Amino acid sequence: MRHKKGVKKLGLPRGHRHALLANLLKALFVKERIRTTEARGKELKRMAERLITTAQRGDLSSVRNVGRVIGDKEVIRKLFKEIAPRFKDQKSGYTSLVHISPRPGDNAPCVLIELVEKGGKKGS
């Protein structure tokens, strides 16, 4: 049973899974909207919300913690300077998952994950 297990394995070894999610997080923070499979999108949403909440603190410790996950200085800078201040009045709900048509080829369920603001405005 998987009661209280924190992470979806996505059928990948730990190193591949961390690399995949780090790359998806980078793409999400740079483009602010990406398309992926439903399982990856749900795990990505969980991680992105945690990183944005951590980035809202803005101290050196939070920069280092986010850097351990992302690793790209430009993306970290954008997260701390642009994205986190945009959500300063929110405590959660920074991302939105929208179900879209299945992927051609293997018919995998796909989602569009995007950064949104409290009033329903999409990220700029």
Short descriptors:
single chain; 124 residues; alpha+beta; 50s Ribosomal Protein L17, Chain: A; three-stranded antiparallel sheet; 3 strands
Helix content: 40-55%
| Computed CA radius of gyration, to the nearest angstrom | 15 Å
What's the CATH architecture name? Alpha-Beta Complex
**CATH-defined superfamily:** Ribosomal protein L17
What is the total number of structural domains? 1
**Secondary-structure element order, N to C:** HEHHHEE
Q: On the 0-100 scale, what is the average pLDDT?
A: 92
Task: Characterize the structure shown.
It comes from candidate division NPL-UPA2 bacterium Unc8. GO terms for molecular function: structural constituent of ribosome. One of its GO terms (biological process) is translation. With 124 residues, this protein is α+β, with helices and mostly antiparallel strands. The chain has a single domain, classed as 50s Ribosomal Protein L17, Chain: A, CATH 3.90.1030. Helices cover 50% and strands 14% of the residues. It is built from 4 helices and 3 strands; from the N terminus they run H-E-H-H-H-E-E. A 3-stranded antiparallel sheet has the order 1-3-2, with helices on one face. Helix 2 (38-57) packs across helix 4 (73-86). The longest helix is centred in the middle third of the chain and has 20 residues, at 38-57. The protein is globular and about 45 Å long. It starts with 13 loop residues before the first helix and ends in a 9-residue tail after the last strand. The model has no long low-confidence stretch (mean pLDDT 92).
